[in-house]
Amino acid sequence: MNYARFLTAVSAARKPSPIRMLTEIQQRSPPSMISLAAGAPNPNTFPFQSCSIQVKNGDMLTFDETMMKRALQYSSSSGIPELLTWMKNLQKNLHNPPTANYSAEKGQMDMCVTTGSQEGLCKVFEMLVNPGDNVLLDAPTYSGTLAALQPLGCNLINVPSDQHGMIPGGLKEVLSRWDPADVHKPHSTVPRVLYTIPNGGNPTGASMTTQRKREVYELARQYDLLIIEDDPYYFLQFDKPWAPTFLSMDVDGRIIRTDSFSKILSSGLRIGFVTGPKPLVDRVVLHIQASTMHTSTFTQLMVSQLLHGWGQEGFLNHIDGVIEFYRTQRDAMLSSADKWLKDVAEWHSPAAGMFLWIKVKGVADTQKLIMEKAMEKEVLLVPGGVFMINSSDPCSYVRAAFSLSTPQQIDEVKKHTHTHTCKCSHTYTHTHTNTLEGNKCTFSFFLHRLSRGSLHSSRNLCEEYIR
Ligand SMILES: Cc1ncc(COP(=O)(O)O)c(C=O)c1O
């Protein structure tokens, strides 16, 4: 692939930072090397000495003084080597990318660490999207993507999608506006970039089928498109085997994949990864050199120690536990939706992720309903419009996340047996025997408030519930 043709002028103009290069050389050097080169501060002056972090399984992550000095110091822009190596092995085992053994110029799979996948996405967009470019995506889509793309002045073109993700026939039709023969002509307006969320889409909960991925990949080959596979919910797929990824099909080196640890290890540590052809990952790293310099060394070391301690098996066991939690949450949300919203709304059961995408029947636009009426009733949902290319277009959907019934709520609820009679004369009784029941109550309660909220005094409900 000719990767140069995809780069924006800004990205193409990026040069390696000589100081950052020296930092990397210094970090690979033996301790006998005397360096007067780096402008790194002396960690002996830092106030922190050591730390240990208790892992829930009883393990300890320990940073002795030497490790602490490293954790507090500048590090490589692509990520600390031991975390990168661990992740590369995981990617190879999970996705078996055809590009793993390609030469660098041919698009060999490479990776870098980013400060959450959001940083990766933002930098990938800046690398590839010029003002006026046509960019393909399937909206409704992640509002963080729209926030990163729209200021670049590109023309976002919507590709039809449903609960199984982007529809290849729809993509084909959109692309039929152009002739594949024109792709490489100067000033061609043929799109060069396609973005999609393949699993548990935010906000739709949609997951793309393998067949659709294959067809979309073939169209990408025909029109020489790069595909940005934004997959933070990959590890939250409820059913196994997990769907093959675009990365696993990438014979050409045209997939840039973003992964995230936010949903499985911690969102606050801010660890994500860009995986893609080396010539493009190198450009992202040059951007990191000039912006954040690197993701926090401390958090990378912390995560790396955890992962090396666990091994891949331990990591995947942890994921299984996370999946079970979200599956239970999803099922609870679905059963509550069945109970309370059947007459007023439609939805599909998400196969991954943490979102239920609810179409409110008979409401052309949910903005007012959510931002005024639901807020009045102390219910927070996201009106669907914020996920549309044009956020002022009417949208009859709302996004409900099933991730955040707090342990405290669950715990409080499970302690009590309470009967609540609504003023709308709807009576329901809960006997809470375990956390799952507690969760069900949370969702029932929540959706009940949404569906019949106007008949309740929300304050009373709240007090009774929190008790
Ligand atoms: C589809 C999608 N992509 C990317 C992100 C960014 O995740 P993070 O930066 O926390 O890795 C999110 C966060 O919710 C998301 O839903």
Automatic annotation (TrEMBL):
Stated name of the protein: Kynurenine/alpha-aminoadipate aminotransferase, mitochondrial
Function: Transaminase with broad substrate specificity. Has transaminase activity towards aminoadipate, kynurenine, methionine and glutamate. Shows activity also towards tryptophan, aspartate and hydroxykynurenine. Accepts a variety of oxo-acids as amino-group acceptors, with a preference for 2-oxoglutarate, 2-oxocaproic acid, phenylpyruvate and alpha-oxo-gamma-methiol butyric acid. Can also use glyoxylate as amino-group acceptor (in vitro).
Coiled coil ranges: none
Keyword rRNA-binding in annotation: no
GO biological process, one term: alpha-amino acid metabolic process
Catalytic activity: L-leucine + glyoxylate = 4-methyl-2-oxopentanoate + glycine; L-2-aminoadipate + glyoxylate = 2-oxoadipate + glycine; indole-3-pyruvate + L-kynurenine = kynurenate + L-tryptophan + H2O; 2-oxopentanoate + L-kynurenine = L-2-aminopentanoate + kynurenate + H2O
One GO CC term, this protein: mitochondrial matrix
Similarity remark: Belongs to the class-I pyridoxal-phosphate-dependent aminotransferase family.
PANTHER family: AMINOTRANSFERASE, KYNURENINE_ALPHA-AMINOADIPATE AMINOTRANSFERASE, MITOCHONDRIAL
Gene3D superfamilies according to UniProt: Type I PLP-dependent aspartate aminotransferase-like (Major domain)
Isomerase among keywords: no
Family annotation (InterPro entries): Aminotransferase_I/II_large, Class-I_PLP-dep_aminotransf, PyrdxlP-dep_Trfase, PyrdxlP-dep_Trfase_major
UniProt xrefs under CDD domains: AAT_like
Pfam hit, one: Aminotran_1_2
Keywords for the protein's UniProt record, in alphabetical order: Aminotransferase, Pyridoxal phosphate, Transferase
Pathway stated in the Swiss-Prot or TrEMBL entry: Amino-acid degradation; L-lysine degradation via saccharopine pathway; glutaryl-CoA from L-lysine: step 4/6
EC annotation from Swiss-Prot or TrEMBL: 2.6.1.39, 2.6.1.4, 2.6.1.63, 2.6.1.7
Domain Aminotransferase class I/classII large: 66-413
Cofactor: pyridoxal 5'-phosphate
Record-level Gene Ontology MF annotations: 2-aminoadipate transaminase activity; glycine:2-oxoglutarate aminotransferase activity; kynurenine-glyoxylate transaminase activity; kynurenine-oxoglutarate transaminase activity; methionine-glyoxylate transaminase activity; pyridoxal phosphate binding
Main EC class the enzyme belongs to: transferase
